[in-house]
Amino acid sequence: MSRLDSFIARMKAQRDCLNFLKPAIDALPGPILEVGLGNGRTYDHLRDLFPGRDIFVFERKVAAHPDCIPPDNRLFLGEASESIPRAAASLGATAALIHTDLGTGDHQANVAMGKWLGPALDALAAKGSYVLANQALDVARWQRQPDPPGVPEGRYFLYRVG
Fold first, then answer.
1. Is the per-residue pLDDT at 103 higher than 80?
2. What is the pTM of this model?
3. Three-state SS at 156
């Protein structure tokens, strides 16, 4: 599969997972967290799916399309390893949905990141909330959920927080 085809498949799976989760998230209180703004495509989709909902975004350095940049009071800037704990101290475990699509092309670096990322995100996740990740995350109180219809196995990882 070419890199372009892989990117398109990842974006389609991401969209399908978020759309699948919408009814469940609508029934939960709390903000939505987008970990990794990138160029803002997913943030834009989240705003469409959940109008009027607080959406907090984490990004090292903003380089998104100008229409897809969150307000300053909804943006946690800096390295995720520092901004996520800072957000946990501010927001607490209140998130209804956490979406993360962090990573590099280096599998070993992604595995190492996953070891601290899951526990860090857990400090933001409300009981009964959902976590959608582009990589497997191992957190004791999270239960892996079945893949939504049409999403290839292992493309995305959906968890329910116990």
1. no
2. 0.94
3. coil
